[in-house]
C-alpha cells in the first residue's frame, strides 16, 4: 500500500482515480498487429438482370441474380479450396409479388451456413405486407412479419414484429411513421417494444433516415 505520509508519495501513480467508466483495455505494444498475410484468391462472379416490358411503366425487373465464389489458389494447408458460395436473388414475377433470398453455402461440407429470405405481396405506391426469416447455422433462427401503408406520396406508416426461435419470444416490435425528406429518403419516427433478457429498457424511441421506397 502507498505511504500516504511520505513526502515522495505521488497520488497520481499510487492511488487510482475514481471513475464511473471502465478502464479501456490497452493493446500490447506490438508493431505487427495489422499485418495481413499474403493470399492468392481468384473470384468467380456472375451478375445478371432480367427485365420485361410493362404496359404502364415501360419496363420492369423480373429478376436480379448475383452468384459468387472464391477459389483459394493457396490454401495454406487448410485443405479448403473454395470459399462459401454466395447467392443473392431478387425476383418479381408479377408487379404484386416480391421475393428476396440471400444464401451462403459451404461448398466443402455441403451445408447451408446462412439463409435470409422475405416474401411480400404489394400494391406499388399503396401498401405492402410480407414475412421472412434470418438463419445463421448454430447461432440464429429468427422470423419476422411486416406491413406498411402509404397515406400519400410523402407519408406512410409501418409495423414490424420479430420472433426468435431459440428464446421463443417476440424479441422486437416496431411501429413507425415515415415522411419523405428528399426524393429517395425519408425520416423515420419509431416506437420499439422489446421482450426477453436485455440490458436496455423494454421500450425505445428511434429517429433516423432511411430509403423511403425500399
What's a concise summary of this model?
The model is unreliable at 1-13 (pLDDT under 50).
Molecular structure report:
- The chain is mainly beta and 214 residues long.
- The protein has two domains: 38-124; 148-214.
- The chain is built from one helix and eleven strands.
- It has an eleven-stranded antiparallel sheet with strand order 1-2-3-4-5-6-7-8-9-10-11, with no helix packed on it.
- A hairpin with a 3-residue loop joins strand 5 and strand 6 (127-136).
- The chain is globular, with a radius of gyration of 26 Å.
- Residues 1-13 have low confidence and may be disordered.
Secondary-structure blueprint of this entry?
Layout: H1 11-14, E1 41-54, E2 58-72, E3 85-91, E4 97-106, E5 111-123, E6 127-136, E7 140-152, E8 155-164, E9 169-180, E10 185-194, E11 203-211
Antiparallel strand pairs: 1-2, 2-3, 3-4, 4-5, 5-6, 6-7, 7-8, 8-9, 9-10, 10-11
* Integer count of domains: 2
Proportion of residues in extended strands: over 45%
Question: How many β-strand runs?
Answer: 11
**Oligomer type:** single chain
Structure classification = mainly beta
- The neighbouring-strand order within the major sheet is 1-2-3-4-5-6-7-8-9-10-11
Overall geometry: globular
Ends distance: 63 Å
Determine the number of helices (DSSP H or I, runs of at least 4 residues). Answer: 1
Task: Catalogue the unreliable spans.
Answer: 1-13
Mean pLDDT: 84
Q: Spell the H/E element sequence.
A: HEEEEEEEEEEE
The helix content, as a percent range, equals under 10%
- Based on CA atoms alone, the radius of gyration comes out at 26 Å
Largest sheet: 11 strands, antiparallel
